[in-house]
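Input.
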Amino acid sequence: MSQFLLYYKLGLRYILDIYSVEYILFLISLLVVFSIKDWKRVIILLVFFILGYTLTISLASFGVMKYNVDLIEFLLPLTIFFTSFTNVFKKKDNFRYQGNMNKNYVLAVLFGAIHGFSYSTYFVGIAKGSFRFWDQFLAFNLGVGSAQVAVSLVFLIIAFLFLSIIGINRRDWLMVISSGIAGVAITLMFDSKFW
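Output.
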């Protein structure tokens, strides 16, 4: 197996691993307000999130920026909680207005940056001392991004099934998913070593 493929798979597994549930929960908390017909907005949102984490994973992995690991491990569930909690109070279709979408893009970049620090902790651990660091970095980052796109696509298809086929009320869907994720995020915050 080539080095590129190995690190690509490590990036995929980092997001899709059952023990990395906070990354999947964060993506779902971002996506729960959207339906499959909003796919263009979802792509833009994912691009902003990817830009945020690519910047910080780059700076942290190459030693340009230092950070407190325990603080980052606390901020991860805090970003999940904040995103889910604000979803609960959104008015119907409030997310469709361009001003609100611009706020979501800014939050996606900021929260992506926080998540990028966490990704870099893992990446530096597996690639330490390697002479092919750039290749491994690119492959790992592409794996992480691919996993996020896959999770997003699966979630939007599930949302389509529940909202359009089964006929679940959109507001109920948003409330149940966001409240559940916010509850899990609170538990993760209290389990954080930062406390």
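The radius of gyration is 17 Å.
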